[in-house]
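Q: For a teaching handout, I want to show students what a protein-ligand complex looks like in C-alpha cell form. Below are the inputs, and the small molecule is zinc ion. Please produce the holo structure.
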Amino acid sequence: MRRVFLGLVCFVLLLWASCAEASLRAFDVGGRAFKLETNVLGSAEFVSLYDLSQAIGGSLTCDEWTRCIELRVSGKSFRFMPSSRAVLIDGDDCIYLPNAVTEVKGDALVTTAFITSILPDYMKSSGKGKSTYSGNKKLVVLDAGHGGHDTGCRGGGLNEKDIALDVTRRVRDLLTEMGYRVIMTRNSDVFLELPNRSDIANKNGADIFVSIHVNDAANTAASGTETYYLSKVQVDNDYHARRLESSSYGYELRKRWSSLTTKMKSIMRQQHYQTTQQKSQLLAEKVQKRLARAAGGDNRGVKGKNLSVLRNSYCPCCLVEIGFISNWSDLKKMKTSAHKQKVAQAIAQGIKDYLK
Ligand SMILES: [Zn+2]
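A: Here is the structure, written as C-alpha cells, with zinc ion included.
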C-alpha cells in the first residue's frame, strides 16, 4: 500500500515537473527588491500569490466559500478570483491581467506581469493606476444584437439583427477613425449566446461595452430612441426586457447564472454595481443625448434595467435602442443608409463624450 502511495506521489511530481518549470527570479517593486520562485505554465510565467504577499509585506486572505483571494498591501486591496483575469482594486477599479489566476495544488498563482506592470503603480503612489492592462488606446466592445436563427424583431421586410449589424459596423469604423480599439462580438449573421457577448468584453478587458438593438412595440405609435444601463430595478411589465430574457438564449443564461452559488452571485452583483453602475448610467446618458438628437422620433431617455447582457459585463455598459421597427416613420428612416450613418455617428460621438 505504502509502495503504491509513493509511486503515485512520484508520478504526480513527474507530471508536475513536466508541465511547470520552476526557477528563481529577481523583482524590484517600489524600491523593494526580492526574489520569487516562478513557474512557467504554457507560455506565461507565474508566482505564488502567497509567496508574493510575504515578499512585499502584504497579507493574503481567502474566502473559502466564494474563492475570492484578497491581497492587502500598502493600504491597497487587490481581489482575485481563480480562473479570472479580472483584479478588483479597492473594490472600485477593475483591471485585467494578461493571464487568469491559476490554482495549482491549492496554491493560487498569479502572472508575473502583475508584479512588473501593475503593482508598481499602486506601491509608489496612492493615486489610481491604469484602468486597463494593455496599451493606452481605449477598447470599446460593440455588440450587434441577435443574429443567426435569432432574428430579433421584424417589420416591413427587415430583421432587427441585420439593421443592428449594419449600424454596429458603421460605429466600429467611426470609432476606429477616432483612434479607439474596437472589437465586435459578431461581424456576420451568426448566433451568439448572451453570456458569450459580455464574456468577449470581459476577456479582452474592455473599457466599455455597447449593445445595439432595434425596438418593437405592440403600440405602433411608439417611436424614437432609448438607452438602457444596468439597474437592480427590474421593470416587470416592460415588453422588451421580457422579450430579451425569454428569447432563445434565455435557457443558456439561466443555466450559467444558476450554476454559481447564491453567495457568489450576491458578491458579484454587489461588486458589479459598485464598480460600474454609475459609470454605465453616465455612458447611457452621453449616448442617448447624441442619439435622440440625430435619430428623431421620441426621446424616451435613459432607463435602468436588470438586463443580463449588461449584468454579466464587468465594464461600464449600455444597450441602445435606435428606433422602432413597429413604427412606420422609424422603419422608413432605418431603411436608408444616410439615417443609419447618422445614428452610428451619434452613438460613436456619445461614446467619445464618455471616454474623454
Ligand atoms: Zn433586440
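A: Two things your students might notice: Residues 262-295 form the longest helix (34 residues). Residues 13-20, 125-135, 233-238 have pLDDT under 50 and may be disordered.
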